Amino acid sequence: MVIDNIYRLIEYPGALQVVNFAEGKVSLAVVKAYYGGPLIGNALSTMREHMPHIDTRVAAIFRHDRPIRPQGSTIVEAGDEVFFIAASQHIRAVMSELQRLEKPYKRIMLVGGGNIGAGLARRLEKDYSVKLIERNQQRAAELAEKVAEYDRLFW
């Protein structure tokens, strides 16, 4: 579960949290609204105009650490933490309305080859170039035998 949560944060740069439901078909994502996002300074009701073919719902907004019940007339402000639900395939599109999208990561460096570090490295290796730093030389050698693509570094 920890590995899945970290993986989703890497998969969606700029997201504060992403939780999947319905076997990964639907996601709840949390992003901080930044200047430059098309929806900043506009009412939530304009989301449909910006994304006519994407069905999404804003579940909550936190402004200055206080919850706001979102309504169509609610104006999105820079700095708001926006919780929204959408089909997983549309998460990036909705994020792009609230902030300038960051480029997807290509290279990932992980420190620690314990259960979480090694598990995350295995999960990431298909889509990313992974560098795993492990200070224990014996553990690094064990990991390298399992996965040839890892770069090994020691402290």
Automatic annotation (TrEMBL):
This is Trk system potassium uptake protein TrkA. Residues 16-100 form the RCK C-terminal domain. The keyword Membrane applies. It is found in: Cell inner membrane. GO terms for molecular function: monoatomic cation transmembrane transporter activity. PROSITE patterns: RCK_C. GO terms for biological process: potassium ion transport. SUPFAM superfamilies: NAD(P)-binding Rossmann-fold domains (SSF51735), TrkA C-terminal domain-like (SSF116726). One of its GO terms (cellular component) is plasma membrane. The keyword Membrane applies. It is a peripheral membrane protein. Keywords: Membrane, Transport.
